[in-house]
Amino acid sequence: MENQSLMTECLREGERLDDLQRDSLMIIQNPSWFCFGMDAVLLSAFTKAAKGDRILDLCTGNAVIPLLLSARTQAAHIDGIEIQKDIADMASRSVRYNALEDRIEIRQGDIKDAVDIYKAASFDVVTCNPPYLKEDGGLINPTDHKAIARHELLLTLSDVIKEGARLLVSGGHFFMVHRPFRLAEIISEMVSQSLEPKRMRLVYPYADKEPNMVLIEGVRGGNSGIVVEKPLVIYSDDGTYTDEVRELYEN
After folding, report:
1. Alpha-carbon separation of residue 18 from 14, 74, 210, 223, 240 (angstroms)
2. Per DSSP, which regions of the chain are E strands?
3. Rounded Cα gap, residues 188 and 211, in angstroms
4. What are the pLDDT digits (tens) for 153-178?
5. Are 98 and 18 in contact (CB under 8 A)?
6. 3-class DSSP state for residue 224?
7. Given Cys at both, which of 4, 58, 90, 227 links 128, Cβ 3.0 to 4.6 Å?
8. Is this structure's pTM higher than 0.85?
9. Cα–Cα distance measured from residue 29 to residue 12, given in angstroms and rounded to the nearest whole number
């Protein structure tokens, strides 16, 4: 009865409550806006945080990454910043539904102002699942939630990496998921911001296909030298998840 009352209080028209399949966590989503995908799950699994760390998730969307990291890590606190007011509100309601207000806080704001909101060098870990595609003109609705999530309408890759570096303590870790076709640009931008690439993993939909995601970790002020981990393959030939992907959901 209590859960039903909380659901009624937290859900808005057009929204649904989805099971994150981890620690009984639930997330509020609006399918007409944008729903999280495999990239968010992989980024949360790729991210490493020590006990007591403070984490900030840039472009947090519906807060799927903060929610998953609350279960996967022993971080002391996890913040998320989202520029779209209605999505930030939805994310905050997910945090409330899961009774995680003491560990997760969502703020509405532009990441280009994040240093003013939080203070420079105040996080041990920064994560981001940013828009992957450049604006490149074209017919894109600049107020559409899906367009903002997919295209660099309100920020650029350079903005993400620059602000991520400014928010990290010296030796802090930056984790991002992106598309391989922009890997040269990603590495160049990271190095220019003294965010040394240290670990990278390419993600393949099938073993015989081209990679469609890249997971990358950088360390602020780190020494040069990167470890390229073995490829991660999502689907077996029969279309089911590979053993490793199933383990990511279970562990």
Report:
1. 13, 24, 30, 41, 21
2. 16-19, 26-29, 54-58, 77-82, 104-108, 123-128, 168-178, 195-204, 213-220, 227-228, 232-233
3. 20
4. 678 999 999 999 999 999 999 999 99
5. no
6. coil
7. 58
8. yes
9. 10
